[in-house]
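Side project, low priority. Logging it here so it doesn't get lost.
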Amino acid sequence: MGDSATKFEQLIAPFETQTGIDVTVEAVPWDSVNDRLTSAVASGKGPDVTQIGLSQLASFLKGDALADVSADLAAYPNLAESNFPSAVASTALNPSGGVYSVPWIADTRVLFYRSDLLSAAGISAPPKTWDELRADAKKLTDKSAKRYGYYIPQWDAPLPVTYTWQAGGEIMADGKIDVTSSAFTKAADHYLGLYADGSVPTASDFDQTTGFISGSVAMLVSGPYLAKAVAEQAPDLDGKWSVTTVPTDASGTSLYAGSNLGVWKNTTNKVGALMLLNFLADPATQVAWYTSNGDLPAATKAYQDAKLSADPLVKVYAEQLKDARLLPVSTKWDAASSEILNALNKIAVSGADKAATLKALADKVATINAGS
């Protein structure tokens, strides 16, 4: 999946040479994945191997599109579960059992901060706790200079979930999405409190990359793609910003995002497909892909490579990945997460009554849970 196949074709050229297997690569834009999946499942004709965004894994499993390769893994040592973080263990990826995909690309969220702005405000180190984050965000906010201490993307569905984890709770209870726990309430208070402090811009179209580069926001939680964008668009900011693990409450758990690879259920070349997955999971291949495309490896051993271990940003990403989790693997998650964001933003931005709005949210999520 993605916008270009050229770099991937270069990555797998050694595999084709070594095995004599000719691999045809097709790039599918992310916004077309669901349509292509639906068509492929209906026709029974899919690729031998497919990339799966972790947020789309539930749809692939529900569509019965992928082969269970649990009985095949012993023959492919790079695919052993012990090679990857526990966040992407098969029990987390495949709640109903079996192994329908293996890790390919890792991604997580960390705290980005403008060290020059923190220093100018007399803040010597980035915040380590929720309380420090709120205090620093207030101190950094200067509306006369059109600067805010913190930014919350109003479209960031995983954010309320990670706040719930950090508050010591779960977003799923007994197989259902739960927005009535004390931890979710605390997460909502944290989300809304930053708005109530006046530390967060309220414009829905605020651009986090532009805002971070310009200094309109001093801190935000985002992924490695932001670091790449800042480095490319504002090289003069080098040395004036950095990243650290997310501020903690009961925990410092962040999001584990990224992509997996799966073998199509109806493939006629399962052995060749698994050979390709084994090649792509090799730490050396994963380092080569990071060097070529900037995607973080899923294989833990890849982080021992000198190219990665010498990079201070990657050190932080690797540390955060040790305490990162997947979003719920549920086809009901998209609808529920949309309702969560709508409710929180309605309170934060439009001034809706908090108690009534959260009660209505609980009712809507209960209806989603009850759906088929």
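Brief comment: Strands lie at 49-53, 102-108, 110-113, 172-173, 176-177, 219-222, 242-244, 254-263, 296-297, 324-325.
Revisit when time allows.
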